Amino acid sequence: MTGMVQRRQTRQIHIGGVAVGGDAPVSVQSMTITKTADVDGTLAQVYALHGAGADIVRITCNDVEAAQALAEIVPRSPVPIIADIHFQYRLALAALEAGVAGLRLNPGNIRKEDHIKTVAQAAAGAGVPIRVGVNAGSLDKDILADYGGPVPEALVASALKEIRYLEDVGFGDIKISVKHSHVPSMVDAYRLLADAVDYPLHLGVTEAGPPPAGLIKSVAGIAALLLEGIGDTIRFSLTADPVEEAKAGRQLLEFLGLRERRGLDLIACPSCGRAEVDVIRIAAEARDVLEAENLPIQVAVMGCVVNGPGEAREADLGIAAGRGRGHLFIKGRVVRVVPEAEMVQALLDEARLLARDGIEARLAAADETAAVEAHETAIELRTAQGDANRAAERRAAVAEVARPE
Ligand code: SF4
What we know:
By secondary structure, the chain is α/β, with parallel strands linked by helices. The protein contains 15 helices and 15 strands.
């Protein structure tokens, strides 16, 4: 089928019950920002991230209290938990003891070969995968010196060095990330890595910053790779409520056709001089009420009935304004006309009915007069706007200029 992404073949690993790599769907990860020692606060955030679309959640394990808290969090979590480990390899052992489903090690700050091998052996014993999580901002000093900076080749070299240590002790339950805050470098690093290994890859643009720039950077890097078939699990690293990053990750996968739509896809026209209503306000109101319903439908908000139903004919449901009325349409066919003030409520009511009864049944229940009224309104508007555009006068002026001397 056209438009389908051909995914690169990778080995499959399992983070708890979530398969990563191989033919598994691309998964969404996020990370808590609470103090891990705060068990209830952290769990509440894990639940919120799960609700927003995260399949896997990472939690920092930065001291003994955090490791102890993980022992309470893991059995109560709705999703597999990965412990994020920096500097102290013993905390990786403690996190395994706490029952985590995955470890993330940063090769830039856990550098001793015997420490890494000790962790790998313990992880193998527990059946827990390790992410080799290379980050341009905390690259192994020797590698940084060899390459003269955090270039893509340096990130890949750091990952390969760590993987060799793991493979030396027979450990292959690996996924890898080579994150960079510079989007083209991030993309290059993952491309190089994809050529070098068949382990599953975790994609991310590190320290992307607050939205909207952080979102744009993340989407640019992650989507470019996913469309090439590279990437098995993703994380947006936003300076924002992590619920936003989970939501964004999930939406990106849905928009790329890599995950089934489970929530609302709201499309709206950008508005133009023809708009008969405040499209921006109506679209925002529609988004708010429809998102709360969590229905897997595509809904269009269009500024005018002249072009709206046609332009948005692929949407399951939509509304277009004209002459103080809202024209509700399903798959491009106008099925009901409502007063303009009731546009959002009408969308909500119809969305619920569509989810319950299906498209065919709702088309069969259409008000036959609605399409006629919409058609007449569209003609009226087109005529009026044609006049407003002084079409005849301007055509005459153009002909005047073009007339031979
Ligand atoms: S649907 Fe109508 S208002 Fe919206 S951009 Fe198209 S022509 Fe303009």
